[in-house]
Amino acid sequence: MSFHMTAVCGTVIAHDNFSFNRLKVIENELIQASTKKFSLEKFYKEPSISSRQMVDCCRRLLQLSLPYLHGMHLCVSHFYSVMQDGDLCIPWNWKKGEAMK
After folding, report:
1. Which of 44, 51, 4 is nearest to 24 (CA)?
2. pTM for this entry
3. What does the alpha-carbon distance between residue 62 and residue 24 come to, in Å, rounded to a whole number?
4. Strand partners of residue 40
């Protein structure tokens, strides 16, 4: 297991590369599972969405039945929108039709 140190606001923080890599693996598995379950043409996140946020979003999505997403392009973002190319964006922290605060 490898560690590296980062200084943040004068505090040294140890980062566990194993945990970060494991989170990325979980994120990718959940993206694949969501893409398959909802028959999405494309499922992705905006660069400003962290892996933890994406994992949280996917876990909650996978608990639902959303047949109307079939064939869609779905983007995880910070807000609801429809892109010019037709991609549907939902906030990572959505909750039963609205964003959680």
Report:
1. 51
2. 0.77
3. 18
4. none
End-to-end CA separation in angstroms for the chain: 36
For 62-88, the pLDDT digits (tens) are: 999 999 999 999 999 999 999 999 999
pLDDT of residue 101: 55
Count of CB atoms situated within 10 Å of the CB of 54: 24
Nearest to 96 by CA among 55, 66, 53: 66
The enclosing H or E element of 21 equals helix 17-37
- Residue 80: how many CB atoms within 10 A of its CB? 13
Paired strand residues for 90: 76
